[in-house]
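Sharing a chain and its predicted structure for anyone who wants a worked example. Both blocks are below, sequence first, tokens second.
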Amino acid sequence: MKREIIQTNDGSTTIHLPDWNESYHSKHGAVQEAYHVFIKNGFSLFEGTEFLKIDKTNPIAILEIGFGTGLNAFITFVEAKKTNQVIDYVGVEAYPITLEEAFQMNYVEEIDALESSLFKQIHESNWEEKNKLSEIFLLTKRKQFFQDVKDENAFDLIYFDAFGFRVQPELWSEEIFVSMFKALKANGVLVTYACRTTIKNAMRSAGFSVEKLPGAPGKREMLRATKGLSKI
């Protein structure tokens, strides 16, 4: 499928699929969406709050569904570095982008120019291996269909960043969210940019508690799911 590089409204880049009229990130702003959904409403729960208490000597285990351009992995490292939090990051992607495409992304310039070598390592590291990219960041990239994720009780946090329901509704099914539920540890959290009633209901049927939260700029709402009683 044809892919092209475009600039989003906050100045950061993303990849656009013209055949689907779908992009890897929000056209309103790739970086600001990633920070709002996955850091502010996901990763930040593990630091400095009573929501979850994580011993910083132990890794926070994160699963990303839709590794894509590596943006979410990169911003997670940048944020973890501020507190020296160890991260064990697993990114699942069925159709990896090329190195040429990855290095056309301007995330290093937009987020942390001092970490250009880390962003390069994210994309040059071997697939299907656990790579130690720094003292605090372990990365495993798995070339895998989302339907084939079979992990159990393995992750504290899931970044669910699949293509939208409009183009791939099968990735937002109850079956998928059952797999996500199993993959999380007790009290684990899943965050996603999406907020359709169909998706919320699929999450709840899978066993999740579901919250609606304010969405990133350009989007009204997003969803956060945990194991427990439903809030909506």
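Comments welcome. Residues 71-83 form the longest helix (13 residues).
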